[in-house]
Request: fold
Amino acid sequence: MKRITLPLTDEQIDNLKAGDSVLLTGTMITGRDAAHKRLYELAQKGENFPVDIKGETIYYVGPAPAKPGYAVGPAGPTSSYRMDKYAPTLMDMGLKAMVGKGARNKEVVDAIVRNHGVYFAAIGGAAALIAKSIKSEELLCYEDLGTEAIRRYQVEDFPCIVVIDSKGGNIYETEPPKYRTN
Reply:
């Protein structure tokens, strides 16, 4: 288990390999489909973003309402393929890491390698457990999107796995063959 402090440094990214289990501590931003679409459209027009994504880690999440004593409600990862159209552009603009679940397309993998980034998977079905790692949240923009607004989370020991590393190592490609039978 590797303990990683956010925001990520190039040295940390160099030391992450596909398959590593990690605990993230620090700050990350959130955003899902609707927020990604808005950022992408701004990028296409050459306009400034309402939030600086350079060096950021983004968590694909739309949490449930918070229970008393918690910063957020259950906060499980969203299927990442829904952001694949937008992710390469955002990575080319400085985004360093993404947290979600599921495989990514070739364009996203290429963008990860090109931009020296990383893709983490959080465990689907563990939304209540993950919420315990989120210590605070701050609304940054797109309040009209409700739970899909872009927020900043302060996290502590947020559990995830490196799925795609900065060299293109990808557990969705390397691991399944190990378990196939003839």
Observations:
- The helical segments are 10-14, 33-45, 87-92, 106-114, 127-131, 171-174, 176-179.
